[in-house]
Write a structure and sequence with these properties.
Blueprint: H1 12-15, E1 22-26, E2 29-32, E3 37-40, H2 43-46, H3 55-67, H4 80-92, E4 99-103, H5 106-123, E5 131-135, H6 144-148, E6 166-169, H7 174-184, E7 188-193, H8 209-219, E8 223-227, H9 241-244, E9 251-254, E10 266-270, H10 272-279, H11 297-312, H12 315-330, E11 339-343, E12 350-354, H13 360-369, E13 372-373, E14 376-377, E15 381-384, H14 392-408
Parallel strand pairs: 3-13, 5-6, 5-7, 7-8, 8-9
Antiparallel strand pairs: 1-2, 2-3, 4-10, 9-10, 11-12, 12-15, 14-15
The protein binds pyridoxal-5'-phosphate (PLP).
C-alpha cells in the first residue's frame, strides 16, 4: 500500500515508499512514529517559533470554537478574534496607521499584496504601473502571483503563461535595481523583497541594500512590499526585520510566526498610503478581493494566544540573545571540507551551503539518524531556523550533529 497523500514539493516515486510521520512535539523537539526524538532545527517549515505542544494555544482555539468556530467576514460581518488580532497587529506594525488584511497563509497574502499594489496604481490614475519586481532566489509562496514572481526558476517552469509584467533583479545588487527603476520605473507597481532571502538559501542583505532599495522605491514611486513570512514575529531578533534594518515598507506580508503554525493564518499589514483611497469617507471603491477563511475565528484565536506567549516569555529577546551563540556554534563548520559557506548572523536563521548537491541526501539522512531534523534549501544548503525556545546547548549539539553528518556525507 502506498500513500494517497500527495506531498508538497516532493518526488512522489521516492516519497510514497518513504514517508516519515511525525506524531508528537514538545518545545524544540518532535518525535516520529518509530519513537525517535528529533531536534527541530527548521522549526518545521520556518514557523514553529514558540515551540511545539503548547496546550494553552489549543485551549484558546477550543474556547473560541465552542462559542463560534468561524463566521464569514465578507461585507460587514466579523467575529471578535479577527478584530482583536488586527488591532494587535496594527499596534505592533513597523508602519504608523496600519490596516490589516487577514488570510490563511503566506501565498494567499502575497496574492493580496500583488493585487492591492496593482489596484492601488489603477485607482491612482496610473494603470500602466503594473510590473512586479522581485529578486533572484526569492520565494514568495506558490499561488498565482507567488509563482509568477518566483526567483527560484524551477518554481516557475512548466506552468504555461504566468502573470505578465514581472521582472527579477540580482539578489543583493542595488545598482541593478536602480538601473531597472531608472529605465522602467513608470511601469513598476511594486518591489517584493524578503529582508533575508529564506528558501533561496538564507541570504542576508549586504549592508545598506535594504535601506537603499527602500529609498529607491520612494524616489521612483514604487511600492515596497516586505515579505516577512519567515522573518516576521521575532526570527531576526526584532519583532519585524524591517525594524532591524530600519525600513518602513508600504505593505508587509506575514504568516507562519503570527500563529507559530498552530493555526493557518497569514495576512498583509497595509500602510496608509495604500489603504487610504479604499477607506476614505466618500470613496466609491471596493477592493474586490476576499477569501472564505479571512479572519477565521478559531485560527485568529490561536494567533492571539501565540502572540501572548511570544510577549509573555520574551521570546524575541531570546532570539537576540541566542544569535551570537548560533554564530559561534556554526563557526567550526566553515573549516569542514564539505562546507562551501555558512551564512548566519541575523537572528535564529542560518544556511549551511555544501560544496556539492550530491552530498545533500546523505547529509540530511545523517542528521536525522543522529537526532536532528532539517531540510534542503535549493540547491545545496541545509536550513537552520530552530524554535526560539531552543537552548544554547541545543544549538551546540545541533551543530555537532550536522558537522558529523556532513563529514560522513
Ligand atoms: N513568502 C515567504 C518568504 C515564504 O517563505 C513562504 C513560505 O515558506 C511564503 C511566502 C508562502 O507562505 P505559505 O506557504 O504559507 O503559503
Amino acid at each position: 500500500m502506498t500513500t494517497a497523500f500527495w506531498h508538497g514539493q516532493a518526488h512522489m516515486p521516492t516519497v510514497k515508499k518513504a514517508e516519515r510521520v511525525i506524531v508528537r512535539g514538545e518545545g524544540a523537539f518532535v518525535w516520529d512514529a518509530e519513537g525517535n526524538r528529533l531536534f527541530d532545527a527548521a522549526a518545521s517549515l520556518w514557523y514553529c517559533n514558540i515551540g511545539h505542544g503548547r496546550r494553552e494555544i489549543a485551549e484558546a482555539v477550543f474556547e473560541q470554537m465552542v462559542q463560534i468556530e468561524a463566521y464569514a467576514t465578507f461585507q460587514q460581518y466579523a467575529t471578535p478574534p479577527p478584530l482583536e488580532l488586527s488591532e494587535r497587529l496594527a499596534a505592533m506594525s513597523p508602519m504608523p496607521n496600519t490596516k490589516v488584511f487577514l488570510t490563511s497563509g503566506g501565498s494567499d497574502a502575497i496574492d493580496v499584496a500583488a493585487k492591492l499594489a496593482r489596484r492601488y496604481w489603477s485607482v491612482a490614475g496610473r494603470p500602466e504601473k503594473q510590473t512586479l519586481v522581485s529578486r533572484e532566489r526569492a520565494y514568495h509562496g506558490l499561488h498565482g502571483f507567488g509563482t509568477s514572481i518566483a526567483g527560484l526558476d524551477f518554481n516557475r517552469e512548466g506552468f504555461g503563461n504566468l502573470m505578465p509584467d514581472t521582472v527579477r533583479v540580482p539578489t543583493n545588487n542595488v545598482e541593478a535595481l536602480e538601473d531597472l527603476f531608472r529605465r522602467q520605473g513608470d511601469t513598476i507597481a511594486a518591489f517584493f523583497c524578503e529582508p533575508v532571502v529564506g528558501t533561496g538559501g538564507v541570504i542576508p542583505p549586504v549592508p545598506g541594500f535594504l535601506e537603499t532599495a527602500r529609498e529607491l522605491c520612494r524616489a521612483h514611486d514604487v511600492l515596497f512590499v516586505a515579505d516577512e513570512v519567515i522573518t516576521g514575529f521575532g526570527r531576526t531578533g526584532q519583532m519585524f526585520a524591517c525594524e532591524r534594518f530600519g525600513i518602513e515598507p508600504d505593505m508587509l506580508v506575514f504568516a507562519k510566526g503570527v500563529s507559530s503554525g498552530y493555526m493557518p493564518v497569514g495576512g498583509v499589514l497595509v500602510g496608509e498610503r495604500v489603504w487610504e483611497p479604499f477607506w476614505a469617507d466618500g470613496s466609491e471603491l471596493i477592493f474586490r478581493h476576499g477569501i472564505t477563511y479571512s479572519g477565521h475565528a478559531g485560527a485568529c484565536a490561536g494567533a492571539i494566544a501565540n502572540l501572548d506567549v511570544l510577549e509573555r516569555e520574551g521570546l524575541v529577546d531570546q532570539v537576540s540573545a541566542l544569535e551570537p551563540d548560533l554564530v559561534t556554534a556554526l563557526r567550526p563548520l566553515t573549516d569542514l571540507p564539505g562546507v562551501a559557506e555558512v551564512r548566519s548572523g541575523v537572528g535564529l536563521l542560518a544556511g549551511i551551503e555544501l560544496v556539492d548537491a550530491s552530498m545533500v541526501p546523505a547529509a540530511l539522512e545523517g542528521c536525522y539518524e543522529r537526532g536532528v531534523l532539517t531540510r534542503l534549501l535549493a540547491p545545496k544548503t541545509l536550513q537552520v531556523s530552530p524554535p526560539f525556545v531552543s537552548t544554547r546547548d541545543d544549538l551546540t549539539r545541533m551543530v555537532d550533529v550536522m558537522a558529523e553528518a556532513i563529514e560522513a556525507a
